[in-house]
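Note on ligand handling. Small-molecule inputs were canonicalized before submission; formal charges were left as drawn, and no protonation-state enumeration was performed. Where a ligand contained multiple stereocentres, the stereochemistry in the source SMILES was retained. For zinc ion, this procedure yielded the string shown in the input block below.
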Amino acid sequence: METAIPLFIADVHLGKLASMLRMLGFDTVYSNTFSNAALVNIALEQQCVLLTRNVTIGRHQHALQTFIIIHDAPAEQLKTVLQHFHLLAHIQPFSRCMVCNGALEPVAKETVINELPEKTAQYYHQFWQCTHCRRFYWKGPHYNRMVHFIQKITGDSIR
Ligand SMILES: [Zn+2]
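Structure output:
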């Protein structure tokens, strides 16, 4: 049976975790300006799982789904979330913007070439652009580190 992939909202302490989840394609609301009340409201309204370091947040909100993050290291945090929510099979790199959570779409190299550092244009051939903030993405060192990390968790390779 297909299980639904949860939407996430991450608290103000979890910015790195939020951008890593987005990098793997998981819809994650995050802003370092959200108050605890705002986090709870958004989580309830949009039916997101609230990822938080705060064990008391939303304690009296019975409809609220929270997942308490106990690790300090973002890599450990990510591993816990991926495993707990069974997300490893649902990873879709280059589908979501790490910065704003917007959807990415593939763009032709000719379109981006003038916007990129010369070396990037030389070495990479596949590009994506955020439909919201217009930022560009490619399979650079950041992506390679993430692939390596996922391989360590799963023993498998991803695209
Ligand atoms: Zn964006």
